[in-house]
Structures are given as structure tokens and as C-alpha cells.
Amino acid sequence: MYQNILVPVDLSHLDKLAKTLNTAIDMAKHYQARLCYVSVTNSTPGAAAHNPKELASKLSEFADEQGASHGIQTSAMVLESVDTAVELDDKLLQAIKDTDTDLVVMASHPPGLGDALHLLRSNAAEIVKHSKISVFVVR
């Protein structure tokens, strides 16, 4: 049913992504699908890496470890953005097309006051709205 699963990952918040990562791994095993871990970053230093090249190396290492540990095929992709707050959704939508993804497994942010006041927008909701493939949002 699914062959290519895309999983957006922020290496600086892996502790908050355990449920999402486990869900993606379970689905990849079930469908014998490939997982592509993708991260979108600015060119400036961040919590996970000093620059996009270092982040690409770390994400690739993470993908290799996940693949070896769980017996699945994995890959990694880092996309550079001038402003991730503005371009994140567009970058992820382009990655979906570029990788021939047929399922996205991504985390939702925990609902809070910002949602009730409509101050925060949901990246997952944007991907669901604008993508033609299935999106599994993990809370």
C-alpha cells in the first residue's frame, strides 16, 4: 500500500518525537516501505547543528542508525530555508513531490492556549490541506 514514507524530524527535539518515530517505523515495517527523514533548516546555527552541512551529516547518521536498528530502509534529506517559519510547509510539500512520497507521518504540536486564540497555525494541518497524499498526524 505504501512504499515511501516521509517523516519530518527536528533533531533538537527527538525526545518529543518518540511516538511519531515509532509510528513511522511500525508502518514502514508493516508495508515494507522506505522511510525518508527530512529536516528543514536555516543557514544560521541552530540547536541541532552549526550549519546545514553538519545537520545533513547528523540526520544521515540518525537515519542509518534507525535503519540498522529496526531493519528498514532509510534515507535523509535536509532542506535549506531562508525563513523556516514562513517556508516550512512549502519545503515539506516540495520534498513530498521530490521523494515520490505516498505517506507522511508527522507530529502535531500539543494543543494549547495559542490554538484556542487562533494565534498558532498547524504545520500538519497545512500539509493535510495542500498535499494529495495521506498524512498521519501523531499527537
Written description of the protein model:
By secondary structure, the chain is an alpha/beta fold. Helix content is about 45%, strand content about 20%. It has a single domain (about 5-139), classed as HUPs (Rossmann fold), CATH 3.40.50.620. It is built from five helices and five strands. It has a five-stranded parallel sheet, with helices on both faces. Strand 2, helix 2 and strand 3 form a beta-alpha-beta unit. The longest helix is centred in the middle third of the chain and has 19 residues, at about 50-70.
CATH superfamily: HUPs
Beta percentage is 15-25%
CATH architecture: 3-Layer(aba) Sandwich
Number of domains: 1
CATH topology: the name is: Rossmann fold
* Terminal-residue CA separation: 23 Å
Low-confidence stretches: 112-119
Oligomer: single chain
Q: What fraction, in percent, of the residue positions are helical?
A: 40-55%
Q: Could you write a compact summary of the structure shown?
A:
The protein is of the alpha/beta class.
Break the fold down into its secondary structure elements and pairings.
Layout: E1 4-8, H1 18-31, E2 34-41, H2 52-70, E3 73-80, H3 84-98, E4 103-107, H4 113-116, H5 123-130, E5 134-138
Parallel strand pairs: 1-2, 1-4, 2-3, 4-5
Features:
139 residues; alpha/beta; five-stranded parallel beta sheet; 5 helices
